């Protein structure tokens, strides 16, 4: 499994049971959650280039990379890793495709089956039922999102940072193993018109197809 595969699995795909004893006062949670909701409510679409660093639990650098990201409401995501290996995660809001160019395999999933597995989904939905599954607190220059006890997620916490003009500037994902994936955005554009083709995927010829939507 490549580092890109593991990173995207962490953010989007592999669920596991969390049992945290973290306690936040309802007043603090409501304030932080409301603030974050208000910021994201102004972001109907977002696209940017990103640079990535993956570090292990001891802080040792495992990998660096770069790519592009595009988000749009509701539930539309395009996360493309260009280096060191090519991977692509695309959701049109209904179906989700994960393409690993190195292994020449495409995994197809129902988007509805993924939305409960990651706090990252809060960037692309305003549904109260999804927001209520996470605890949100203020950190320097942003917010920390952690799944509530009993919520399935491979993500231990998700930190979201904003710059001085309140644009999304960075995301840091910490998984249950302690591995930290940091993404810093540049050349970002908020609320631009995004082509629908960004969120569609044509399966290349000759690749292995793992269609997990069959029988659901």
TrEMBL record:
InterPro entries: LolA/LolB/LppX, OM_lipoprot_carrier_LolA-like, OM_lipoprot_carrier_LolA_Pbac
Pfam families attached to this UniProt entry: LolA (PF03548)
Keyword Chaperone: yes
Subcellular location: Periplasm
Task of the protein: Participates in the translocation of lipoproteins from the inner membrane to the outer membrane. Only forms a complex with a lipoprotein if the residue after the N-terminal Cys is not an aspartate (The Asp acts as a targeting signal to indicate that the lipoprotein should stay in the inner membrane).
Classification via NCBIfam families: lolA (TIGR00547)
Protein name: Outer-membrane lipoprotein carrier protein
Organism annotation: Pseudoalteromonas aurantia
Higher taxonomy: Bacteria, Pseudomonadati, Pseudomonadota, Gammaproteobacteria, Alteromonadales
